[in-house]
Specification:
alpha/beta, Lyase, Ornithine Decarboxylase, Chain A, domain 1, TIM Barrel, eight-stranded parallel beta barrel, binds ligand LLP
């Protein structure tokens, strides 16, 4: 059930009408539903019940401390891609020992920070990274647990910018090089190979490519075992998509069905080859946890009719929500309250000085100046990808819990945006 719905013609988040949020906190504002967040996490957590499995939320999707705190309390681990994200986990009260560290360019400082907090595992993406990590761990008198991110060369059938599992992508160790790379890892004195991982792309609606990738990981785990390298965990990455509401869009695979198929395949394999000895399974979902839990609430500044196009100019822009400009992503736009008059076809655009500054194209909207609109399914890769372009402060973030409203991020004040700059002496 969606926690954003129309009641008496007014769009609500749980039991709160969105206009109330605009009155209290202004616009543009990201509005999240706590119930939706907990429900989405439960879909993963419940499907893992009774198993040695860990859900490491890919916090790049939305790293607000309040969200991390809520998920940590439900038992989440975290998939991080920077030292900054690790500091967020700690600030939110998350457990660093449930953290896995992904990314192709980890710095020495980031490795040190992560080792000092005893994170669960480094997902390593190259041989030079193995050597760097071995040196850093050695200098600290530590052993680093590592997993290799294997690039299974599977087509995730998604937008090229968010497909990551093909040979042409910068990510991971090529499937054919994986065995040799594990041997290198095993030979380095301060590394312990404990796992294998992959992440083939994002916004996958069908789980067939993920299961194909799983088969390739299984093949490697077996080959490694013959070589004496026995792994404790297998990490499927993230990637399960959500419904953005575009006409003709396929439904995403239900989370429980996908996890069920992963576990069934793994159980059959472990039964056949390892006398039933289980292997820990890790998932790194981002969008599927937060994507549909948030909307971007924005106000219409002006309506500007044109010869070829009509523009609906709103106070949110590409700096607040980059997905349309960057990926030509289709995001649903809804009127927050009824407006008299027939709908008109508009391009919904922001005030930023770029033609690429659009949020939605050719939408039928019944709106007037000063009305509110909601950009739906904006909970993932919204605020986290936002910028200060045009010296625009980032939007506020509000978490709704029934009728209760929590301001979980204040709107940025323009003076703060240049506080770190200085004039020449
Ligand atoms: N694990 C790794 C190693 C990743 O790189 C990602 C996302 C995830 C997990 C989480 O993937 P998810 O479950 O959210 O699909 N900004 C783009 C999406 C970029 C995804 C990057 N990696 C967008 O707005 O569509």
């Amino acid at each position: 059930m969606s926690h954003f719905f129309q009641l008496d013609g007014v769009l609500h988040a749980e039991s709160t009408p969105l206009p109330r949020i605009a009155e209290h906190f202004g616009t543009p504002t990201y509005v999240y539903s706590k119930a939706a967040l907990l429900e989405n996490f439960s879909a993963f957590f419940d499907a893992c019940a009774g198993r040695d499995a860990l859900v490491c939320y890919a916090m790049k999707a939305n790293s607000n401390l309040a969200i991390l705190d809520l998920l940590a309390r439900q038992g989440a681990g975290f998939d991080i891609v920077s030292g900054g994200e690790l500091l967020r986990v700690i600030a939110a009260g998350g457990d660093p020992r449930k953290v896995i560290f992904s990314g192709v360019g980890k710095t020495v400082d980031e490795m040190r920070l992560a080792l000092s907090h005893d994170i669960l595992c480094f997902n390593v993406e190259s041989i030079p990274e193995l050597h760097r990590l071995n040196e850093v761990a050695g200098a600290m008198g530590k052993q680093a647990r590592v997993s290799l991110r294997v690039n299974p060369n599977v087509d995730a059938k998604t937008h090229p910018y968010i497909a990551t599992g093909l040979k042409a992508n910068k990510f991971g160790v090529a499937f054919d090089d994986a065995l040799a790379t594990y041997r290198t890892a095993a030979s380095l004195p301060h590394l312990v190979p404990v796992g294998i991982d992959c992440h083939i792309g994002s916004q996958l609606l069908d789980d067939a490519p993920l299961l194909e990738a799983l088969d390739k990981l299984i093949e490697l785990v077996d080959a490694l075992a013959l070589d004496g390298i026995v792994l404790d965990h297998l990490d499927m990455g993230g990637g399960i998509g959500i419904n953005y509401g575009e006409a003709g869009e396929a439904e995403p695979v239900p989370v429980g069905d996908y996890l069920g198929r992963v576990f069934a395949r793994i159980d059959a394999w472990r039964q056949a080859s390892y006398g039933g000895k289980p292997i820990k399974v890790i998932f790194e979902p981002g969008r599927a946890i937060v994507g549909d839990t948030g909307v971007l609430l924005t106000r219409v500044e002006f309506l500007k009719p044109g010869a070829e196009k009509n523009f609906c100019i709103v106070d949110a822009a590409m700096n607040d929500l980059m997905r349309p400009a960057l990926y030509q992503a289709w995001m649903d736009v809804r009127e927050v309250a009824p407006h008299d008059g027939e709908p008109v076809i508009y391009d919904v655009v922001g005030p930023v000085c770029e033609s690429g500054d659009w949020l939605a194209r050719e939408r039928a909207l019944a709106v007037g100046q000063g009305d509110l609109l909601a950009i739906m399914q904006a909970g993932a890769y919204g605020l986290t990808m936002s910028s200060n372009y045009n010296t625009r402060g980032r939007a506020a973030e509000v978490m709704v819990d029934g009728e209760q409203l929590h301001l979980i991020r204040q709107r940025e004040n323009p003076a703060d945006l240049f506080a770190l700059e200085s004039l020449l002496k």
